[in-house]
Write a structure and sequence with these properties.
The protein is α+β, with helices and mostly antiparallel strands. The protein has 10 helices and 10 strands. Helices cover 40% and strands 19% of the residues.
Amino acid sequence: MEINKKIDGFKNEKLIILPKDIVSESSRNSLVKNLYITDIGFFPHAQYHYRERKEGSEQNILIYCVNGEGFVEINDEKHKITKNTLFIVPKGKPHNYGSTITDPWDIYWIHFNGELSDSYLQSKDSITTIDLPLSSFSILINLFDNIFDALLMGYTVNNIIYANQCFGYFLASAFYMPYNKYTHGDKSIKYIENSIIFMEKHIAKSLTLGDLANLNGLSKSHFNEVFKEKTGYSPIDFFIRLKIQKSCFQIDLTDLSISEIALNFGYSDSYYFSRIFKKIMGKCPSDYRKIKKG
């Protein structure tokens, strides 16, 4: 099997690397600690995709191949991966995996941890592989999109819980194929959703608490109380974190300089932007850009 290596970057790829403080909080949340996501992404037509971890990963790595072919090597054994195959690499095990050149794979991937994270492994020393029926595709991709979209809306407590509960459903669907639907509603969520949509539309501006409170027809104190109760953050702190989250996409998926990216999110001082970025993500922008994702 002929394999070339590509460092990073695939057209129309998408990915999210959760900040360390969010992952740390997730590990303590009673509704999340059993199973929580640390990284998530999608690499379409990932020709020359290759990853090697000589000391293994700190998380279990799930990869769902929906098209094309690739391989995974662990314990000096190479396994061929084909369409409609899901596999999990156990944490702490040296491994490498990648796509073929002639028929590059499309993969959805999730890094995860938690007290029950090893329960989905057939073995802690080798890969877990599942050949999925075509009928499972729409269910799993819909769940993946729900997880990704929830995290894309910001790291609120509700979003984190929802995303990780969906991930549990994703794994249960892949391993046991149950069928269920969940619906819920909360009137006060409207204020949060309105505010986040407004933040996204004005991501390059400097918004005030008054701007967001007026948007929702609430006093500043009432709005601040409602927003913090539902998200765990004050509105402005949340807005700053949303800016950093969106800036990660540009760092990962473009060749823009850090100064240009900082300006895109309303930071004329790139050094100040870097300090804020490091405080939230745990690394400065330039070091974050060097991380191999997926």
